[in-house]
Amino acid sequence: MVASALFSFLHFAAALAIAATLFFEWLTLSRTPTLDDARRLQAADRWYGMAAGVLLIVGFVRVFQFEKGSSYYFHNTFFLLKLALFVAVGLISIYPTIRFIAWGKLTRQGQAPQLADAEFKRLRQALGAELLLLLGIVLCASLMAKGLGA
Predict the structure, then answer these.
(1) pTM of the model
(2) Quick one: how many helices (H) and strands (E) in the chain?
(3) Domain boundaries, given as residue ranges, for the chain
(4) For the segment 90-133, what is each residue's pLDDT rounded down to a tens digit?
(5) Residue 66 DSSP label
(6) 69: burial class by Cβ within 10 Å (0-12, 13-18, 19+)?
(7) Which of 13, 10, 15, 26 shows the shortest CA–CA distance to 93?
(8) What pLDDT does residue 98 have?
(9) 5, exposed or middle or buried, with CB in 10 Å at 0-12, 13-18, 19+?
């Protein structure tokens, strides 16, 4: 029972870390990021990726080792939708991550990146879409926890 509670805690902590880092990225991103802002965005994106990895691993440990068992989850519409939304968030996050990594050469040289209006708009849209889809994941988790979708 303690192990189940610990994994539940880790799952929620990772989910909160994803939401926090993503919201931080969304708030920090500007058309003219400073060097410090660019470095913060790069660090936040690394934390975001680590939290997503922890969430996925711990989530699957919970599915297969704890809670209601894998047969329940893999036959639940809201669990499957939650996984699909998680994959969608991950796919959308590729673009901002690639851009933030590309800034590495500049930031190591002490220079701030220059964003074209189109790039800023795409980054902002990607981060906003990820945040919106996270709400869908939370909704699916709530519905699933109440036994709906089975």
Answers:
(1) 0.91
(2) 6, 0
(3) 2-145
(4) 999 999 999 999 999 999 999 999 999 999 999 999 999 999 99
(5) S
(6) exposed
(7) 26
(8) 97
(9) exposed
Highest CATH level, class, for 2-145: mainly alpha
- 129 Cβ partners below 8 Å, 6+ apart? 92
The helix or strand, by DSSP H or E, that contains position 4, with its residue range, turns out to be: helix 2-28
What is the structure's pLDDT at 68?
84
Amino acid identity, residue 8? S
| 3-class DSSP state of 33 | coil
Name residues whose C-beta falls within 8 Å of residue 49's C-beta, 6 or more positions apart in sequence.
97
For the four alpha carbons of 117, 119, 121 and 127, in that order, the dihedral sign comes to negative
CB 14 within 8 A of CB 55: yes
